[in-house]
Design brief:
The protein is α/β, with parallel strands linked by helices and about 575 residues long. It has a domain of about 110 residues: Ribonuclease Inhibitor (Leucine-rich repeat, LRR (right-handed beta-alpha superhelix)), CATH 3.80.10.10. About 20% of the residues lie in helices and about 15% in strands. A hairpin with a 2-residue loop joins β1 and β2.
């Protein structure tokens, strides 16, 4: 073999080392993806810049695993593997590493000096592990870090100044842990942080200065905790905050001025809390587009509560306990297009409550206890697309109210206890002239008086007013609704014509004969009923026996073929 052959073999050997692809891995250029490994892959080319390892049965990461390719590595990902330990100095030679992800592992803790040489690291994800503690200095060398994900772990607290030194951090994720408290200086030094996620923890209170250094914060997640109180100064330094999530907590009140220093806030969630009242001007001059306040315990809406929210288009106050809305409650809502007040305890409204809302298009008032509406309900509302009044306690609608519905495209009136008397006639006439505005118009039926129950309102006329109800109906009408439910229904007595007194003897004989005949008919009827009941019982029992026998045979045949899978109901 001459010199040329040795050179060729040498080149091939070098290529095999440099460009080889480990078993159970896929290689493309300088990117390698490996899965379902039982040990760390060997023979990884020294030029590898991206390494993904998934679903690996590896107990630990060691410096020796990384030596061959550390200096070229830019992205290193280990997901859904059994790693329980990362030994000290494992990443010491990975000077160019920018993205590090260790997620879905069995890691409980990290060594103090693990990240000390990662000066270029910009993204660190340690989510979905079993980490339960974080030292105050382990992250300090990561001065280039922009994204830090510590979510879905077992942290119960975060030490003060735990993130000191992360001067370029923009996104911090701590959600879905068990954090019960925050220290006053936990977030010190995070001047460039834009997103902070603390949702789904066990926070009950917050220090007033908790977010003092977060002057560039734009998005703050605090939903799904147990917060019962917020300090008035908690958001005093968040001039750039655009989204604030406070839903699914236990807040019973909001301190005055808490939202006054949030000039950039465009979205806030306060639903599913225990809020009982809102003080006038509580929201300050906020550029909100939507305001969701449903599932609280609000009992009334005072004047000028929303007066500063001049850009709000949607206001949701449903599923509270509101029984009163003051005139002027919606002052200032110049851009409001839709308001939802459904599922509250409203009985009536004061005149002009929706005045000053030129762009209002939808009003939802269903599932209340509204018994009457003022004629000036829609004063100042130029045009409505939909007015929802279903499932209330309306017996009639005044002519003045009906006159204002000329500017409403759709009216929902179903499931109301309409009382079919003289006062209902204006509604009947309006329905006949505006059939296109009311869907399922034939479903609107009389609830009272009882002898007119289920009569379609659209067919109700003066003729019904002259009808005399049967005697038992008159008696029932004097009862309260509760008594009506308690009193069993009995059919009306049969009408009979009395015979002249001169034929009293003959009448008596006839009565006796008639009585005997009725007794015979009753006995015959009872016999028929008994026979029918016996036959039906036999048929039903036969069907049940057949079905049981059939199902047992079917189940037995299925069990022979394959086991019965578990089912979720």
């Amino acid at each position: 073999m001459d010199l040329r052959h040795y050179i060729i073999l040498g080149i091939c050997a070098v290529n095999a080392v440099v460009w080889g692809c480990p078993a159970q891995c896929q290689c493309k250029s300088s990117k390698i993806q490996c899965q379902e490994l039982n040990e760390f892959p060997t023979g990884i080319p020294s030029t590898t810049s991206i390494l993904y390892i998934q679903q690996a049965n590896i107990s630990s990461l060691k410096p020796a695993d990384m030596d061959a390719f550390s200096e070229a590595l830019i992205t290193f990902v280990v997901k859904n593997s059994t790693i329980r330990e990362v030994e000290p100095h494992t990443f010491d030679r990975a000077h160019n590493l920018m993205n590090l992800m260790l997620t879905g592992t069995g890691l409980v803790s990290l060594t103090e000096d693990l990240f000390q040489r990662l000066q270029l690291l910009t993204s660190l994800s340690l989510s979905d592990n079993k980490l339960n503690s974080l030292s105050s200095s382990i992250l300090s060398p990561l001065q280039a870090l922009k994204t830090l994900d510590l979510s879905i772990n077992q942290f119960t607290s975060i030490p003060e100044r735990a993130f000191q030194g992360l001067i370029h951090l923009e996104k911090l994720m701590l959600q879905k842990n068990s954090i019960g408290e925050l220290k006053a200086r936990t977030f010190d030094g995070l001047n460039k942080l834009k997103t902070l996620s603390l949702q789904h923890n066990n926070l009950k209170t917050l220090p007033g200065s908790a977010f003092e250094d977060l002057v560039n914060l734009e998005i703050l997640h605090l939903q799904n905790n147990g917060l019962t109180h917020l300090p008035a100064e908690i958001f005093a330094h968040q001039q750039k905050l655009t989204k604030l999530y406070l839903s699914n907590n236990q807040l019973s009140s909001l301190p005055d001025g808490i939202f006054l220093n949030l000039p950039s806030l465009q979205q806030i969630s306060l639903y599913v809390n225990n809020l009982q009242s809102l003080s006038p001007g509580i929201f300050g001059n906020l550029p909100l587009k939507d305001l969701w306040l449903y599932d609280n315990r609000l009992t009334k809406i005072e004047k000028n509560v929303f007066s500063n929210l001049t850009q709000v288009r949607l206001l949701v106050l449903s599923r509270n306990q509101i029984s009163h809305v003051s005139p002027g409650a919606f002052n200032g809502l110049d851009e409001l297009e839709e308001i939802s007040l459904h599922t509250n305890r409203l009985v009536t409204f004061e005149a002009g409550v929706f005045r000053g809302l030129p762009k209002l298009a939808n009003i939802s008032l269903e599932n209340n206890m509204i018994e009457d509406l003022p004629g000036e309900l829609l004063d100042g509302v130029s045009h409505l697309f939909q007015l929802e009044l279903q499932n209330n306690s309306l017996p009639h609608l005044r002519q003045e109210v009906l006159d204002t519905l000329v500017n409403v495209d759709n009216v929902v009136l179903s499931k109301n206890p309409w009382k079919c008397d003289h006062d209902l006639l204006p509604l009947v006439e309006w329905l006949k002239k505006n059939t296109g505005k009311v869907k399922n118009i034939t479903s609107l039926t009389c609830s009272s008086p009882t002898h007119l129950a289920n009569v379609s309102i659209i067919n109700f006329t003066d003729a019904y007013l002259n009808q005399t109800p049967p005697p038992h109906i008159t008696q029932n009408e004097s009862l309260s609704p509760t008594e009506k439910w308690q009193k069993p229904h009995t059919p009306p007595p049969r009408k009979s014509t009395s015979a002249p007194s001169a034929n009293s003897t003959s009448s008596s004989d006839k009565n006796n004969s008639s009585k005997d005949q009725r007794e015979f008919e009753a006995l015959s009827t009872n016999m028929h009923l008994i026979i029918i009941a016996v036959v039906c019982t036999v048929v039903i029992i036969s069907i049940i026996i057949f079905v049981v026998y059939w199902r047992r045979n079917k189940q037995g045949s299925q069990d022979l073929r394959h086991p019965k899978p578990n089912s979720v109901i």
